[in-house]
Amino acid sequence: MATPGPVIPEVPFEPSKPPVIEGLSPTVYRNPESFKEKFLRKTRENPVVPIGCLATVAALTYGLYSFYRGDNQRSQLMMRTRIAAQGFTVTALLLGLAVTAMKSRP
Fold it and tell me: Where are the membrane-spanning stretches (predicted)?
């Protein structure tokens, strides 16, 4: 029986290559999106969410302005409107996610 030669340990991870995982094919992003491109793409996919965000900011801003002026009734109304706009935004976000998930199914 021959004596085995020295055992050379295999390099566990090569930084220049992605790890090989059975059943997974890694994708390499050649053109990473800029912030503007990603924002525009996401807005086209679900245009209701930015509208809800703008409504929330508008209600908050006007409510704070009314509070500063001392118009408590208007300030309360705007804070309630802000809560409604936030609920609308969250609902739109969840519905958009559900629609996207349904589209991606085969």
Answer: 48-68, 83-102
